[in-house]
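Minutes, project check-in

Agenda point 3 was the complex the collaborators sent over. CS summarized: two entities, 614 residues total, and the question is how they sit relative to each other. Sequences were read into the notes so everyone works from the same version.
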Amino acid sequence: MSVPLGHIRRCLEGAVPAVIATAAADGTPNVVYLSQVHYVDESHVALSYQFFNTTRRNILANPRATVQVVDPVTAAHYRLQLEFLRTETEGPLFENMKAKLAGIASHTGMSKVFRLLGSDVYRVLDIECVLGDASCETTAQPHLLPGLRACLACLTTCSDLAHLFDATLEGLDRHCQIHHAMLLMHDKAHERLYTVATRGYPQSGVGSEIRIGEGIIGVAARELTPIRIGFAAREYLYSRAMREGFEKGTDGGALETEIPFPGLADSGSQLAVPILLGPRLLAVLYVESPQELRFTYEDEDALVVLAGQLALAMELLTHAAEHHEDAAAATPPSAAQGTPVTVRHFAADHSVFIDNDYLIKGVAGAVIWKLLRDHLETGRIDFTNRELRLDPALKLPDITDNLEARLILLQRRLAERCAFLAIEKTGRGRFRLNVGRPLQLSDMQDR
Amino acid sequence: MTQSIADTFVLDEAQAAFVQRRVAINVASNSAERLPSLARAIGCRVSEDRRTVTIFLSVPRSATLLRDLRAGGGIAAVFTRPTTHETIQLKGAAATIVPLEESDRAAMQACAASFLEEIFQLGYKDPFATAMIAAVGDDSIGVAFQPTTAFLQTPGPSAGTKLGTNP
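CS then shared the predicted structure for the full assembly.
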């Protein structure tokens, strides 16, 4: 009896090399190793097409192949009878396999050799367990559903976006044993993602940015598909040098490079899952581990479910912050004391420095500058999301941009970098600027 | 099936040594309908004149492959050393199914043991590693063939290069 493909997904993780047999039209057999057998769905796999070799010639002439895969725990062998259907050279499946291949290549010292030309999609006609008896049954896999359930339960009690972000990462840590994770918001107008919450890193890295299409997070965002690799690849790691290379980009401002990306330097496994509301990309959830092959197909399934719930919760809480305001709280007298501090703002990129220390730039930089100016001119400390949204001078990206998430970013940067300036939520759609020292504002035209 | 000597690929001494130790071996054939068959082998023996290779296959794990070879299907075998990725593929027009000789079981065990050392070096652990060579205790049989062509399959720009005959 044929084994369901879903039962042997861990054989497709790449821990043990697979072998493919094909036959030429004249019946000459060919047998070679394969870099990747990728699970597409219950009745399809995709194989990596890297070279125009005999295997390639054979399947174009005679579309049947037999592939042998090995269970990485039990060493049970399975033979898949396959029929070649088509080759994909772009899109989610291709990008997924390309990222994974880069990891395999890097792991095996083949970075200069392996390049994905295409994803060959095959129909699975039959799966045979080589011994054909119960000894081939895979051993029990860890159950992920209880952890996922506990994680989802944490989300339901969150009343604002900041808590939602933190509860998600805490839930992954406590209930799913995923200890290094981050959330990056989508900035559609500037074609990038900015880090808004992280857990498990020495430096939070909140405010760091990644270009769409760059690294596994950027590719997951561009292709709207999860990208998971079991052997981290050098070309997908976020080195400072690589990110600085994008500073010269022409599409809407330099990338934030002052704030280092917090990822693990010795990352072994990585998984990036887009957080989608219908077709709209809201954010990316990224998790990683120093351990190789840490994340399985089941982990990917679990995080996709989590991302779906997260998208709905984010939308709900964002809508609440934008369209409803709690009544203003009583304003305590402002008590700025001590030596005055100079805050500089550079109009070109809205970068803001407190004394000589860099704080933030871009949208969040423009926002803090407006708040500080208003505060100095009128003494105000209470503000609403709505007025920021409506302020023409701020030139906020369109309404789909998450203003609440920008404020969370700003709030967190201030908390990390500045002891005497803080943003405090005072209710739905409402916040307060706490100023602890006298300020001098200096607007610079050039940097 | 008879073959003239000219069609034979003669392994050189290094190749003969390579295929008999520390390697994973996988063997393929196909049916008259060109449906490929495939099985993992444990060990092989190379004849003194290095013109014939006899690969040891588990009978219960290789049923379809053995059926195709008995029916006269061609044979291809790939040998790879896990720690170096060094790989060659041998092809023959046909294979003869032969019983194991007296010394073959010991050869299988030696090949399995050396393969095990290789994968331990790569970090694979027991019980997985030993399970990889479980077939060493199976009811086994030999498939003997005279290679007609050989290819270098080590990943890299030269993968797929036809190896010259060694007169």
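Noted in discussion: Chain A touches chain B through 36 residues (CB under 8 Å).
Follow-up: revisit at the next meeting once the mutant set is ready.
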